[in-house]
Amino acid sequence: DAGVIQSPRHEVTEMGQEVTLRCKPISGHDYLFWYRQTMMRGLELLIYFNNNVPIDDSGMPEDRFSAKMPNASFSNLKIQPSEPRDSAVYFCASSRRALGGDTQYFGPGTRLTVL
Amino acid sequence: SQKIEQNSEALNIQEGKTATLTCNYTNYSPAYLQWYRQDPGRGPVFLLLIRENEKEKRKERLKVTFDTTLKQSLFHITASQPADSATYLCALMDSSYKLIFGSGTRLLVRP
Fold first, then answer.
1. What is the pLDDT of residue A19?
2. Smallest Cβ distance to A99: which of B93, B101, B104?
3. Contact B98/A99, CB-based, under 8 Å?
4. What is the 3-state secondary structure (H, E, C) of chain A?
5. Best of B4, B96, B99 to disrupt the A interface by mutation (most A CBs within 10 Å)?
6. Rounded average pLDDT over A12-23
7. What is the per-residue pLDDT across B6-39, written as a single tens digit (0 to 9) for each?
8. Residues in chain B within 8 Å Cβ distance of A105
9. Bond into A8 cis (ω within 30)
């Protein structure tokens, strides 16, 4: 298996623009997670899905952020409008079953810079 | 409030020595604790999982302990190598079954 795939790997955009980050989880994994990592706040969970259904989005910073999982093979995270404070590395991860008790497999991340 | 603390200062050791990293937590009663390794520019990679009823877990040169009384986990790398240099993250499952990560400790192994 290719592992978790994320695109793009790097994104530079200007404040106010819409940003879309993409993720393909590992086939057969029921859970998908979106995280954000910054020096100040570390690795934070934004939202997670179970069987394509959003379960907990309490980590989403504000209404400018949205995430969808239209099928088992794809999820996207959108930021509209983007702001400089959204600059971070965004990771997607997937796991096979129970949260906490199972391994999470992380993608390589998308480094987002908002100017 | 709930907190996970890892030493923010880098741990600098000589090759061949044992590296010991600490993860302390407050106001959690985690059923599981996991350790991940993260290299620069990459996503975290799972290393070990230990359950609350397990005191110790080993995998090759890695050993993890979990003391629910002290609310602490120790992560050991024996016979350390320069290739072990990375940031190590501990993660706890919180009451809503999500993984909460510590900020990580950077390990530098000198040849």
1. 98
2. B93
3. yes
4. CCCCEEECCEEEECCCCCEEEEEECCCCCCEEEEEEEECCCEEEEEEEEECCEEEECCCCCCCCEEEEEEECCEEEEEECCCCHHHCEEEEEEEECCCCCCCCCEECCCEEEEEC
5. B99
6. 98
7. 988 899 999 999 999 999 998 888 888 999 999 9
8. 46
9. yes
| Residue A101 to residue B31, Cβ atoms within 8 A | yes
Choose among B32, B43, B92: nearest Cβ to A91.
B43
pLDDT for B69-107, tens place per residue? 999 999 999 999 999 999 999 999 877 778 889 999 999
Q: Which residue has 């993608």 as its token pair?
A: A107
CA distance B81 to A34: 32
